[in-house]
Amino acid sequence: MRGVRLLPAVLALLVITATPVHAAPRIVGGVVAEAGEAPWVVALTSSGDQFCGGALLGPGQVVTAAHCVDGRPPASITVVGGRLDLRTGDGATSAVSAHRVVDGYSTPSRGKDLAVLTLAEPMPYAPLPVAQSSGVYMGGSVGVVYGWGRQAEDDAVKSPLLHKAHIPIVPDAQCAAVHPRYDAVVMFCAGYPDGGIDSCVDDSGGPFVIDGRLVGIVSWGVGCARPNLPGVYTRVTTYLSAAA
Ligand code: ARG
After folding, report:
1. How many domains, in total, are found in the chain?
2. Can you give the residue ranges of the Peptidase S1 domain (predicted)?
């Protein structure tokens, strides 16, 4: 299994080295993810275009945001794993045979923004374990978010390279004060008072990870990386429980 992961790693490194140093980071204010650090990250694509992120929960299961797949026929989605640079043919792809959206989901700003996809072809990459308790949602805990989304809210161009950013969780009361629709049962917020670092459009569905465990899913925001407007994430432990 290790060998399977190493080959894409080498190719991705070559490509990253060939990228001009002034290339702008994606996610907003992030850095390029390193080969092997996030084997469970997947891209959701349609006709070759990445539109959301996700993470492997098991070889044949992907967790993403409900709004990424709601209303999209499973057959129109291809999941790409083991590919940091979407311009390459690295890794593995799979069709989606079914998806299940959380009951009662309507729109990201009302929460419940989580879906689980069943893959037609299991993927040979390490899955991401789910956080063990709701105690992880403490203000100040820093998570890492991964995605191929925009580098700025008005940026039409996306990076083909997987990016990541470290972002602290914002206490519930503080988030409720800035997002009137905030619901601490099903969401949490993460961001910096000064903005500048955030997830953004097309990062949706991607994982927010603390200590190697899935804690959140990129869900919604008001613009991206604006001061005092933290990004909103699905509170994963409300929906998924950790395997023992
Ligand atoms: N809804 C966006 C998507 O579909 C994610 C937005 C996240 N925004 C933020 N400011 N963190 O890709």
Report:
1. 2
2. 27-244
What per-residue confidence (pLDDT) applies to 244? 55
Residue where a domain stops, chosen among 61, 85, 119: 119
The pLDDT of residue 158? 80
pLDDT of the residue at 147: 97
Residue type for position 72: R
Pick the residue whose CA is nearest to atom 11 on ligand 1. Answer: 231
From the CB of 203, is ligand 1 less than 6 Å away?
yes
Average pLDDT by stretches of 10, the chain with 244 residues: 36 34 61 94 97 98 98 97 97 98 96 98 97 94 97 84 97 96 97 96 97 98 96 97 74
Q: Do residues 147 and 84 lie in contact, with contact meaning Cβ atoms separated by under 8 Å?
A: no
Contact call for residues 31 and 164 (beta carbons, < 8 A): yes
For the annotated catalytic residues, the residue numbers are: 67, 113, 204
Read off the CATH number of the domain in which 14 is found.
2.40.10.10
Position 29 in a domain: no
**CA 51, CA 204: separation in Å to the nearest integer?**
8
Predicted pLDDT at 148: 96
198 ligand 1 Cβ < 6 A = yes
Q: For residue 11, what is the enclosing H or E element?
A: helix 2-18
- Ligand 1 centroid–CA 35 distance in Å is 24
Pair (106, 172) in one structural domain: no
Domain ranges, residue 218: 134-238
Same-domain status, 138 and 228: yes
How many Å apart are CA 149 and CA 156, to the nearest integer?
10
Shared domain for 229 and 197, answered yes or no, is yes
